Amino acid sequence: MSAEEGDWNFYLRTVSNSARDSNIANGPASDPSLLHAVKKLCEFCKREDKPSDDLVARVYPHLNKLFQRSVASLSQSNSSNGLLLLGILQFFLDFGEVVLHDADPSLHTFIRSCLSREFADPIVAAATLDFLYVNKNKLLISFPNLLPQFFPLILKLTAWNGGKLEKPFLKVLPGLVSPGSFLPLFPSLMDLPILVVALEKVERSSGSLVGNNIASIQKSKAPEMLLALMDEAYTGTTVGERGGDESEESSTINVADPLFLELLKDENDGLVERHWTSPGIAAVLQAAKNSPQSERLKQILNIAPRLLDAYFAIALRDANSSLICALIPILMTRISALFPDQNYMYKVRRRLLEFMLAAFHRSPDLIPLLKKPIIDRLGNAYDSTEKTELALQLCWAVGEYGGGGPTHKDAARELFESLELLLYENLSSSRLGLRQESAVDSNRKSFSKSSQSRLLCFVITAITKLATHHRELLPRARVALIKVARSLISDSRVSKRAHVYLGLIDEPSICWPVLGPSRPSHGFVHYPGTVNWNEGGNKMVAHIPFYILGEQEGPPFHDFSLSDVLPRR
């Protein structure tokens, strides 16, 4: 017998003895040599030039029994079973076809019974992500619904273990995205900071998360303690002050608060509305804002925006227009409902707006489909700074893409009317955002005037661009621009821009290349800001508006003649 055969028999005997052990209290994971034996047996089965079906067939029954015994001992074992089960699962994936073993039930059992208890163990978490990445192609082909189904648990182990798992998670993230998980994954990524806060509260109240199944939290004392702590932050009363005979009236937060059960779940249950105005979430946000941030929370606040970057890149590359169309209204709602950290809110809002504009650039037809939420957001431009910024970006998109293009005239007209209303509301008022009071300080007034001027510039630009795309709107656009030009606005930049646009719309051959679409139209490509002078000889109907060149006023500053500009015949 060779040394290699001796090693093979030794490792097989080690696994066989452990598989036959009937003592549940003494779990397999308590034997440190067992994991090494499992890995060695897998290596032996792979080492042959052609995998030996005989070796695989001899190993499989023992590993299958060992897997079942490990799962049965999870609730009573003090040792981590995660690494051992991952080693056995690797064998099932590699040689399942040889031994006719369907790995799907085993994978579900591991995730629900083991990973849900050991996700907080950094070694198990890192090994799990590595296992998912190494077997990503096999899982996506043979079990395409597995990763999308359990993405909340994978997010949970990533959020809890922090920056060490960012890169491994990014490698796995594309496998989490499917038609059924695309929309629910977005709010889950957005709420990673609040998930960390909730897990930290559970840990402080019930001890280490390793070995505790958070999925069954409603059956344990952990949620009662978690919600009691939130109640304390919300009402100012401590658990001890309430006493044992607490009435329903004095209990501000229900133990079965659906928001926190939603945050702490392990499986994808579809898109669930998250009520950010509920007492529970308000309490947690207020407590998080007023207390020092933990190191784990600081890490996830830095990581979450980068995870959103990866998610949006996948969305623009792989998601169809229907999913993007369903995502954008959720994005519009969440732009004002974020974890209260200034740096985090700035980073996330910037990414949300950039993705929204990128989605409209990829599919301008989304604009008429999303006409109602766009009009609603334009109407809410006064509510807060972030809603004002959202309205500005929507104004730009509506104008840039002509309300969806020349085939969407009804939607363009309704969007135009909404922009008109927003314009006239601003012209008839001296405020933007919250109502200005007489006692408002000068800095606040200055900021408000600057914001109003910026909004007006965006709105009149969008109105002019829409009228350029849809010529039937030109008379109404001209009336709106004349009102702006004649209005008593303190910021001269607004009225000056209105004058410029009035001059442009009187020169169709100049206005179309400057304010027209940047996408191909009728076989021609137009580049905004570039005038096609070759058409000047037959399309010019009046003088060339030289004021658009450097916005110079008065006599022309040039020393060339029209023959130098227009092509000679």
UniProtKB/TrEMBL annotation:
Residue span(s) of domain AP-5 complex subunit zeta-1 C-terminal TPR: 279-519
AP-5 complex subunit zeta-1 ARM repeats domain: residues covered: 30-156
InterPro entries registered for this protein in UniProt: AP5Z1_ARM, ARM-like, ARM-type_fold, TPR_AP5Z1_C
SUPFAM superfamilies xref list: ARM repeat
Domain of life, source organism: Eukaryota
Protein name per the record: AP-5 complex subunit zeta-1
Organism of derivation: Gossypium raimondii
Lineage: Eukaryota, Viridiplantae, Streptophyta, Embryophyta, Tracheophyta
